[in-house]
Amino acid sequence: MKLFALAVAALSLTVAGASADPIEQRKANMKERGGIMRILGPIAQGKADFDAAVVNEALAALEANARAAADAEALWPQGSDTGDTKSSPAVWADFDAFKAANAKYDEAVEAAVAAAPQDLAAFQAAFGPVGAACGSCHENFRIK
Amino acid sequence: MVSLRRLALAGIALAAAGGGAFWFLTEPARLDAAAVASLGAGDAERGSQVFWAAGCASCHAAPGATGEARLALVGGERFTTPFGTFVAPNISQHGRDGIGAWSAEDLANAVMRGVSPEGRHYYPAFPYTSYARMRVEDVADLHAFMKTLPAVAGKAGDNEIGFPFNIRRGLGLWKLVYLDPSPAVALDNPSPQVARGQYLVEGPGHCGECHTPRDAFGGPDKSRWLAGAAAMEGQGTIDNVTSGEGGLGDWSEDDIATLLETGFTPDYDSVGGKMASVVRNMAELPASDREAIAAYLKAIPPHPNAY
Predict the structure, then answer these.
(1) Residue of B19 and B133 predicted with greater confidence
(2) Can you give the three-state secondary structure of chain B, one letter per residue?
(3) How confident is the model at residue A8 (pLDDT cuts 50, 70, 90)?
(4) What tens digit of pLDDT does each residue of B189-199 get?
(5) What is the torsional sign of CA B264, B265, B269, B274?
(6) To probe the interface with B, which of A37, A139, A140, A141 has the most B CB atoms within 10 Å?
(7) Quick check: A12 pLDDT over 60?
(8) Neighboring chain B residues of A85 at a CB cutoff of 8 Å
C-alpha cells in the first residue's frame, strides 16, 4: 500500500511538470494562478461585467490550480530556498505556518467554488477571503 | 629632542582640536524655536490620518499584529541590516516603557530631527530623514492622536550593532550630510494634487527609505529617487516606482491608487513582504490621498531600475 502511494506520488510528480525543479514548478503554478486572477479580479472590482458562467469556470480552474500546489513539501522542499525565487526564508524557518497559510488559501478557494455565486454580490463575498489569503501569504512568505 | 617634544605637543593639540570639532559637529540639533512655536494644540482626528500616512504601526506594533492590535505600539519588530540589527522600540503611551511622558515638542524633535528627549541621536532606521519634511502642525496632530492610544508595558529589546556604528555620536556627521528637509525632487509648478502627493511620499509616507537606493554610507541617492533598490534586509529587491524602464511606466494613476488601496497590481498579483503592511496603512487614507500619491509618482523624473 505504501509502495503504491509512493508510485502514485512519483507518477503525479512526473505528470505535474516536465521540469522536476521545484522552483520552476511553483513559479509555473503561480503564473497560472495569476492568469486566472486576471479574469476574476476585474469582475470583483466592478471593472468587468459579471457573468456567472465565466466566474464559475474560472473558480473551478483556480481550485484545480490550488490542488496542484497543495503539497507544500513537494513544491517547497528543503534546499529550494536559493536561486531565482521570491519565496522568503520564512517558508523554511516556519514551515508549519507556511503550510497553514497555503491550506487557508485552498480552503478559501474551495469555499468560493462551493458557493457557486450567481450574482456579483455573492461572488464578491466568496472571493474576498481568496484575495485576503493571497495577501497574507505573500506578506509573510514572499520577499515582495 | 626639543623639536620632537614640540611635534608631540602639536600632535596632542591637533587631536584635541579634532576631538573638539567632532564634538561640535556631532551635537544633536533640535528644531528651532520658530518651528516649536508653530506646533499648536494638535487635533487627534487629523492626527489619525497622519499616523496612517506615516506608517507608525508597520514598525512599532507587535510583529504580526492585525486589526486593533496595530494601535498597541509595543515595538519589538527586528530589522536585520548590513549595519546591524535594529529593534523598534515601544512608542505606546506607557510612561516608563513607552513615550507617554513626551510633549509634542519631544515627539517633533524625535520624528523630524532624530533627537531623543535626552538629546541622543536616533539611528536612521527610524526614517527621520523623510519625516524631516513633515509639517510641524502635522506632528502636533500626530501627538494628539497618539495620546488616545493604549499604554502597553514592556521594553522592546536593544539594538545589536557593532563598531563603529554603535557610536551614536557619530550619527551627527551622518546627519550633517543626509538630514535635509528640502524636497527630494524639484517639480516644475506642481498642481495642488501633485504637491499633496509629494508631501505624502517624501515626508510622512517615507517611501524613499526603501524605494530609493542608498550610497556606501547608507544615505539616499536622490539622483535616482524612487528608482528601486537592493533590499536593506535579506536578499531581494524593492521595485522601481518611477516611470523609467522596469518601473511603473505602463501603470495608470488608477492602477497605482488601486494597489495602494487593495494590494493588487494591474496583473492581479498581490503585493507581499513589508509592502502588504504599507497597503493596510494607505487603505486608511482618503481616496484623494492615494490619487495624489499616484499623480506624484507619474510626475517625478523617470529612472531605469537602480538595482
Answers:
(1) B133
(2) CHHHHHHHHHHHHHHHHHHHHHHHHCCCCCCCHHHHHCCCCCCHHHHHHHHHHHCHHHHHCCCCCCHHHHHCCCCCCEEEECCEEEECCCCCCCCCCCCCCCCHHHHHHHHHHCECCCCCECCCCCCHHHHCCCCHHHHHHHHHHHCCCCCCCCCCCCCECCCCCCCHHHHHHHHHHHCCCCCCCCCCCCCHHHHHHHHHHHCCCCCHHHHCCECCCCCECHHHCCCCEECCCCCCEECCCCCCCCCCCCCCHHHHHHHHHHCECCCCCECCCHHHHHHHHHCCCCHHHHHHHHHHHHHCCCCCCCC
(3) very low
(4) 999 999 999 99
(5) negative
(6) A139
(7) no
(8) none
The verdict on a CB contact (< 8 Å) between B272 and A45 is no
pLDDT tens-digit series, residues B46-97: 999 999 999 999 999 999 898 999 999 999 999 999 899 999 999 999 999 9
Average pLDDT over residues B255-268: 95
Question: In terms of pTM, does the model score above 0.95?
Answer: no
Average pLDDT over residues B33-52: 96
Selected residues 114-143 of chain A with any CB under 8 Å from a CB in chain B: 131, 134-143
Higher pLDDT, B9 or B97: B97
The helix/strand/coil state of A89 is: coil
Is the CB of residue B156 less than 8 Å from the CB of residue B72?
Answer: no
pLDDT at B1 over 80: no
Closest CB to B276 among A42, A86, A135: A135
Burial track B228-244 (b if 16+ CB lie within 10 A, e otherwise): bbebbbeeebbbbbbbb
φ and ψ of B229, to 5 deg: -165, 160
- pLDDT for position B47: 98
> Cα–Cα distance between B248 and B259 in angstroms, integer?
12
- Closest Cβ opposite residue A144 in set B236, B267, B277: B236
Note whether B16 and B115 are within 8 A (CB).
no
Mean pLDDT in residue range B120-128: 97
Retrieve residue A70's grid coordinates.
Answer: 497543495
pLDDT cut 90: percent of chain B above it:
86
Q: Give the pLDDT mean for A73-91.
A: 93
Please list, in sequence order, all residues whose beta carbon lies within 8 angstroms of the beta carbon of residue B160, skipping any fewer than 6 positions away.
B84, B85, B87
Min distance A41 CA to chain B CA atoms (Å): 6
Which uninterrupted H or E stretch holds A85? Answer: none
